[in-house]
Amino acid sequence: MCRKPSPRKRNLLKRSPQRIRHYESHVLICTGSDCKKRGAKETRKAIKSEIRLESILGEVRLDTVDCLGFCKYGPNAIIYDGTDPKGTWHLGLDESEAP
């Protein structure tokens, strides 16, 4: 015997699928405790500024993560882009070295 879906479930089924924005690159910046102590916030700001200066804000997604490991080298970042889906690691960054 089939049950009717609840009103809430019917509303979910009626919704159109959400669009997900496609980015050329995705930058993940570690903001774990060690990276934070070593300037992750300033490094993130520098990278964001560089992205804006290059007018590539719509092409690059910049996110923070709790920990990428390699804590003793921080702040750290990993960049995924269309040419290197494995990602490129950047360890021990400071704001003057923002990739």
The tally of beta strands, per DSSP, is 4
Q: Do you know the CATH topology?
A: Glutaredoxin
Order of helices and strands: HEHHEEE
**Whole-number radius of gyration?**
19 Å
Structural class based on helices, strands and sheet pairing = alpha+beta
Low-confidence regions? none
The major pleated sheet works out as: 4 strands, mixed
CATH architecture: 3-Layer(aba) Sandwich
Mean pLDDT: 84
Helix content: 25-40%
The N- and C-terminal alpha carbons lie at a distance of: 59 Å
Which superfamily, in CATH terms, is the homologous superfamily? Glutaredoxin
CATH class call:
Alpha Beta
> Count of helical segments?
3
- How are the strands of the biggest sheet laid out side by side? 2-1-3-4
The global form is: elongated
Summarize the structure.
The protein is α+β, with helices and mostly antiparallel strands. Helices cover 27% and strands 24% of the residues. It has helices spanning 7-14, 33-37, 40-53; strands at residues 25-30, 60-65, 77-81, 84-90.
